[in-house]
């Protein structure tokens, strides 16, 4: 009974949490419908994927640079333990970005392979790559909001 009530609550909240999912619409930058060809969809997702992946890489690099970019005064104030923790965080973020690339590619290859010999495999792959990059961008902005600002130039 408790599970049924929980499921009912979840399904009632779904439109507020995931409006595109609940309405049957796909979230994304590309048009969808009977008048859009598979080739048009693939081209659109390819362009969106390139831009979104560049954004994810840029945000991760900026966040790592921000973690490493403390001033000498901050180093003196924070002490060696905090400075080392910030450097470790930057290294881990760099490593996570590389691991994310591997995950993204392997996962989307699985999506494309699921289409077996279908003509939609390439489009599904590009859409997957875009969708996963969009999620990475959202997560980086959430966890490292300072990385979204203009590039800092140190003198």
Short note summarizing the structure:
The protein is an all-alpha fold. It is 75% helix and 0% strand.
Gyration radius, rounded: 20 Å
Separation, N- and C-terminal Cα atoms: 64 Å
List the secondary-structure elements in sequence, H or E: HHHHHH
Shape: elongated
Question: Percent helix among the residues?
Answer: over 70%
- Report the sheet-strand fraction: under 5%
What does this 3D model show about the protein?
- By secondary structure, the protein is mainly α.
- The chain folds into 2 domains: 1-30, no CATH class; 33-148, Substrate Binding Domain Of Dnak, Chain:A, Domain 2, CATH 1.20.1270.
- The chain is built from 6 helices and no strands.
- The protein has helices at residues 2-17, 19-23, 38-68, 72-78, 80-114, 121-143.
- Helix 3 packs antiparallel against helix 5 (80-114), helix 3 runs parallel beside helix 6 (121-143) and helix 5 runs antiparallel to helix 6.
- It is elongated.
- It starts with a helix and ends in a 12-residue tail after the last helix.
Task: Name the descriptors.
Substrate Binding Domain Of Dnak, Chain:A, Domain 2, 75% helix, single chain, disordered N terminus, 155 residues
List the helices and strands and how they pair.
Elements: H1 2-17, H2 19-23, H3 38-68, H4 72-78, H5 80-114, H6 121-143
Helix pairs in contact: 3-5, 3-6, 5-6
